[in-house]
Amino acid sequence: MSATEPIDTHEFPLDHEPVENWQRLEPAASAQEDSPTDRTLSETTTAFAELGTIAGAEYGLWEMSAGTMRDVEGDEVFLVISGTGRIEFDEPSRTDIELAPGSLVRLEEGMKTRWYTDDAPLRKLFIAPGEDGRVAPSPASDGQRALRQDS
After folding, report:
1. Are the CB atoms for 68 and 118 separated by under 8 Å?
2. pLDDT tens for residues 96-119?
């Protein structure tokens, strides 16, 4: 993706694969009774597409079918662009997060989560540190820091 070639994040094709065995989660494991219980374990799928990098940060799309799964998170911030659901936290203990288009969420490395998707697919645009774990500051950031120091 480039600045002169935008993409439609709703229509960008993603290839789904079943979640890994360790990610499978019984729908009844939810603390809430309105979990999607009509999905079998093998039906939950996810898809991923890395779209590019900017200043050392990776960005891309991730999508989950209707169903449930567990995950161990990496550092990221994401914006839900379609679908609804929620994230429940096993470790550290946190309040559940309801997900809907427009939800902006920050996850930290090592968080243990459970994902429940209701209106599927749940699609998010994510930004995460690059492979080396660092994000390079942009030239604008350096200039803004200099302005703040002069104030």
Report:
1. no
2. 999 999 999 999 999 999 999 998
